[in-house]
Every structure is written in structure tokens, then in C-alpha cells.
Amino acid sequence: MNNGPQTRDYFAEMYVAGILADKGWNVYFPRRDKGFDFVITKEVENRIIVRLVQVKGKYPEEGKTNKQVYGYIGKLSQVHNDMVLAIAFFSHDSTTKSPECVAYMPRKKISTQKGKGFACQPAKFIDSKVIRRKSYEKYFDNSGIQRMESEKWE
């Protein structure tokens, strides 16, 4: 009998941490998870960039309807101007082990939602597929990771 969690949140965190480590970021995990899932640092042009990371996984269920905006809506235990909200978009196909894509979103792209917490919706969900919204495409996968190296992370 499988008594594991119904979602793969911890897997999403480890997946994103692994991708960032592969791209040269140092990854530091807190002793207690009371907000940010981990902290990343990287030396870029003789300066150290520090980013605080929260990871949210999106796991659509079979039969999910089309959405013109799709991403994370909910509570964030902590926010910071230099944070990254990494949204890992999974397929509802049970054979897919890793996310289809990951959006690395800066704080300025996360809005406050009255009564719901926060919202960041950089994708669409059309015909059971995640589609990057054109104005947010630069925040996905490798280009999103590269943008985090900028002092003007936004």
C-alpha cells in the first residue's frame, strides 16, 4: 500500500534545485522550512547574486478545462523582493516523471489576490497542454534561469 503524498511537491522542489545546481547555482536548504524552500547563490561578474526560492508544482487532473491564464494562486508563507517563485508545470499523464517546463518568476510578477493570497499565472492550459503566455516566455526554463543572474531581476 502506498502511503505517500498525493502530490509531488517535494519532488518539484528537488527537481528545480537540481536544475539550478546544473546551471552553476549553489543551493542551500534551510534547517526548517518556514517559508522559502531553499536559497541559491551564484558569483556573476565578481558579485554574489542571492535568490530566495519558493517552488510550487502544478499538477492538472484528467478532465481539466482550458484556461487562458494558468499558474499558481494561493498563499506564500514569505515574500521578498529578490525571491523566485519557481512554478513546475507537470502533465496529468502519469507516465511523465518530470515537469513539462518551469517558470522562474520574479516578485514583481506576483500579484496580491484579495482573499486568495497571491497569483502568478505565466501560462495557459489548452487541450491538456501547458502553453507559455507570450509575455512571460522569457521566464521559462533556461532563459528564466539566465534572467535571475541580472542585478535588475524582474
Strand order of the largest sheet: 1-2-3-5-6
What percent of the residues sit in helical stretches (DSSP H or I)?
A: 10-25%
Query: Please, what is the oligomeric state?
Result: single chain
Q: What is the third-level CATH name, the topology of one domain? A: Trna Endonuclease, Chain: A, domain 1
Coarse morphology:
globular
What's the overall average pLDDT, rounded? 90
Number of strands: 9
Radius of gyration: 15 Å
Distance between the termini: 45 Å
Number of helices: 2
Spell the H/E element sequence.
HEEEEEEEEEH
The CATH architecture category of one domain equals: 3-Layer(aba) Sandwich
Assign the structural class, choosing from mainly alpha, mainly beta, alpha/beta, alpha+beta, or little secondary structure. mainly beta
Note poorly predicted spans.
none
Residues in β-strands, percent: 35-45%
| Largest sheet features | 5 strands, mixed
Name of the top-level CATH class of one domain: Alpha Beta
